[in-house]
Amino acid sequence: MKLLEVVRTGDTSAETLSTLTTFGKKLGKVTVECSDTPGFIVNRLLVPNLAEAIKMLERGVASAQDIDTAMKLGAGHPMGPLQLADYVGLDTCLFILEGWSTKYPDVELFKVPETLRTLVSEGKLGNKSGEGFYKH
């Protein structure tokens, strides 16, 4: 992955931030800076998006294939959110959402979709187990 998220807290000095950014660039990374928030930038946007795709599937809004196709063709994503959840690992998605929802119980974006819990409890973890939202 070419990206490195450099996280700054209230205690992070400008020197530390500069050192980390320089180090990341020496490793060939593109660095971005963000404050300390759950998931930083990428996962803070990504994981709730994956969860919402699962919730849409639960509500019968569209099939898994149609949700993924819509995001690939309509939003220019290289893979759909349910395909990506399978790739990341449904157990990983669940672990992240459970942690966030425990720490921030009033944040709707962090609520765990029941389908995600069910699939993981059945051992359907996505690509790594051979089945998740899709058979692999």
Question: How would you portray this structure in words?
Answer:
By secondary structure, the chain is mainly alpha-helical. The chain has helices at 14-26, 42-59, 64-75, 81-88, 90-103, 114-121; strands at 3-8, 30-35. Helix 5 (90-103) packs across helix 6. The longest helix has 18 residues, at 42-59. The model has no long low-confidence stretch (mean pLDDT 97).
In a few lines, what is going on in this structure?
With 136 residues, the protein is mainly alpha-helical. It has helices spanning 14-26, 42-59, 64-75, 81-88, 90-103, 114-121; strands at residues 3-8, 30-35. Strand 1 (3-8), helix 1 (14-26) and strand 2 (30-35) form a beta-alpha-beta unit.
